[in-house]
Amino acid sequence: MPTKVVVGVQWGDEGKGKIIDILASRSDVVVRSQGGNNAGHTVKCDGEVYKLALIPSGVLYPKVRCLIGCGVVVDPKSILAEIDGLKARGITCANLRIDPRAHVVMPWHLVLDGMSEDKLGSSKIGTTRRGIGPCYMDKSERIGLRLSDLCNPQQLADKVKVVGALKNSIIEKVYGGAPLDLDAVVAEYTEYGKRLAPYLEDVSVVVWNAIQEGKEVLFEGAQGTLLDLDVGTYPYVTSSHPVSGGVCTGVGIGPTFINEVIGVSKAYTTRVGEGPFPTELFDETGNTIRDVGHEYGTNTGRPRRVGWFDGVILRHAVRVNGLTGLAVNKLDTLKGLPILKVCTAYRKADGTRITDFPPIFDELEGCTPEYTELPGFTEDISGCKSFEELPENCKKYVAFLEEVSGCPIRMVGVGPARDQNLER
Ligand code: GDP
Ligand code: IMO
Ligand code: MG
Question: Is 103 a catalytic site residue?
Answer without folding.
Answer: no
